[in-house]
Design goal:
The chain is mostly helical. The chain has two helices and no strands. The chain has helices at residues 71-74, 85-99. The two termini are 22 Å apart.
Length: 102
């Protein structure tokens, strides 16, 4: 099978606390196979851009966005706030459009 177009994929991974501390996960377990393509900051947190895209090591990495789990980069309001879901969705859609995938 030949795929000639990339399609955005949304994954519901649940609500976990991400971070470098013992009671936290360094990244969502679902990303285990690809996490090496993305950057962590000096404190050990996954680097998340303002549009919720993970910052890759190389431009050739496909765009990967998180919805939620971004308290370290987007503030405590990002922690499970269902009222912010529409705003995050619009922000992510804008990021996908900027990448040319939506």
């Amino acid at each position: 099978m030949v795929v000639d177009r990339a399609y955005p994929v949304g994954l519901a991974t649940g609500f976990r606390v991400l971070g470098p501390n013992p009671h936290q996960e360094p990244y969502p377990a679902l990303l285990g196979g690809v996490i090496g393509r993305f950057r962590f900051d000096f404190d050990g947190y996954v680097t998340v851009e303002p549009d919720y895209r993970l910052r890759p090591h190389a431009d050739s990495a496909p765009p990967l966005f998180l919805s939620g789990l971004c308290e370290s980069s987007h503030g405590i309001g990002d922690a499970g706030s269902f009222s912010l879901l529409p705003l995050r969705a619009v922000t992510i859609l804008g990021g996908l459009r900027k990448q040319g995938t939506a």
